[in-house]
Amino acid sequence: MGKALFASEQIGGVDTVTGACGPEAEHRGSGTLVVFSALIWAGMFMLFLSSPVVQVNDSLYSMLTAESLIRNHSPDLTHYVLPDWSEFRHRGYPLARTNGRLLYGFAQGSSVLSAPFVALMAAFGVSPAGRDGTFNLRAELTIQKDLAALLSASTVTMFFLTASLVLSPGWSVLIALGAGLGTQVWSTASRGMWQHTWEIMLGAGVAYSLLTAEARTARLRPVLLATLVSWMFFVRPTGAVTVICVSAYVWIMWRSSFVSYAVVGAGWLAAFIAYSLAFFGTLIPFYYFSSGQDLPWATPVKFQPAIALYGTLVSPSRGLFIYCPIVAWVLFVVVRFWRVLKPKGLGAMALLASMGIWLVIVVHADWWGGACYGPRYMSDALPWIVLLAILAIAGIPPQRRSIRSPLIAAGALLLAVSIAMNAVGAWSWETMAWNFKGPSPDIMLDWSRPQFLAPWLDGK
Known about the structure:
- By secondary structure, this protein is mostly helical.
- The protein has helices spanning 31-50, 62-72, 89-92, 109-123, 137-163, 169-181, 184-187, 195-215, 222-235, 239-253, 258-279, 305-314, 320-323, 326-336, 344-362, 382-395, 406-427, 430-433; strands at residues 10-11, 14-15, 95-98, 101-104.
- β3 (95-98) and β4 form a beta hairpin.
């Protein structure tokens, strides 16, 4: 393995894999790459930061938890003076009393990873808690918005660097911007510190690490890979799908690195269990082994897998192919050029990871993801969908990559629609108010009132 599967195969001076010509194919690591990366990061950061919608629902108190870890070396929030949310249950629902403590009930990996940024903001006078321990909601929102914009911009930049391993700078920029603007990165991950925000960032690092090992004569970095994969699970339970798929891939394709990978992963798992035992009193936090219906804040709903299959893919307000139609194009190109797709093993793993995440969502009773915009739950699959896009475009013959090609023209049109759909979620507050206009999941399935039209529904 790792034998430069994407080594240049030039015909007439054109790299048949990347579409790059001559020196361009040999100098992707030059200063040009650094300049592009800096410009993409700065542009995305400013756009994400200036987009007005802030989505702090599940993530409320996650930054306060980070502050507690710094100040008290514990996630227990009984040290703080919190608002009385008795009249506003939707504000206090992320908290749960367990093992004698008041804890942030969702996965706490994001709080742990965010602690350095919370400490930095505190140094500038912005803290989710005052000196007397009173919760500062405004500061919590500020920290979440700033950190989400920073991480999402970094995710887009990572997508660019991953694409640049096998594609020309032009195509790499297009993929990065498409992933940043035409997906939930803009409409969900950058709007607040959802669990997805860190998970997508970590997943982008995993995709980069794997493609680097395959595209260049380089060894796999099992320690880094195991660390990234482990933390994907720590920030969100659906990261378990990535753990399984990547572990199987390393076992099959990079067996000489598997022992190191497994030992490091086992070490991180032991640390995770120790944390859970210390603060939750169980081997893993209750959020990880719940069905979604037995959580302290859950509202019982009927499990309807057939509706979930339809709802997650093509429903008017949660369908992946409705809000990100470019994904349908990516899957079509993957199937169309599967014969020449390289490396097939990595492509198959990305497909299986995406399908696994989708199936986990389908069997979850709360498949629509609560009060959010579009297919939030499918955000978890974005690193693998972007990796598939990179491999798919690399598999298209260079002569068919022109905008005059019907295939590329169709992709451009679907990308434009995807960007427009996600822009609505990032810029219109009406899209969030829409969630409370009717009962779930009925409102998610109503084509007469789709969420993306919320700004034009005149309050109906």
